[in-house]
Amino acid sequence: MSYTIDLLLQVKTRFNLSSDYQLAKKLGVSSARVSNWMKGKNNLDWDTAFQVADLLEINDQNVVYGLLKDKYENPRFISALSDRSPA
Fold this sequence. Notes:
It is a single chain. The protein has about 90 residues and is an all-alpha fold. The protein is about 70% helix and about 0% strand. The protein contains six helices and no strands. It has helices at about 5-15, 20-25, 30-40, 45-55, 60-70, 75-85. Helix 1 packs across helix 4, helix 2 (about 20-25) crosses helix 3 (about 30-40) and helix 4 crosses helix 5 (about 60-70). The longest helix is centred in the first third of the chain and has 12 residues, at about 5-15. The model has no long low-confidence stretch (mean pLDDT about 90).
């Protein structure tokens, strides 16, 4: 499962949202956008990612590292991130 999907599921759980439609309303985005995230077609944009971080009270740095791994598949890039990722 991608970090994007994991974050979205955490928001749904934290706020007792039973549908992607409710999640879309909570985040102020379209249902189609949430659908694309949940299907793995797209990853969260940075503004929405930081909104989710605020909702979940997650450190911004952890969100950035998690999403970078979703957004980039280059093994060398991922290795460089892993060497510097926060504890």
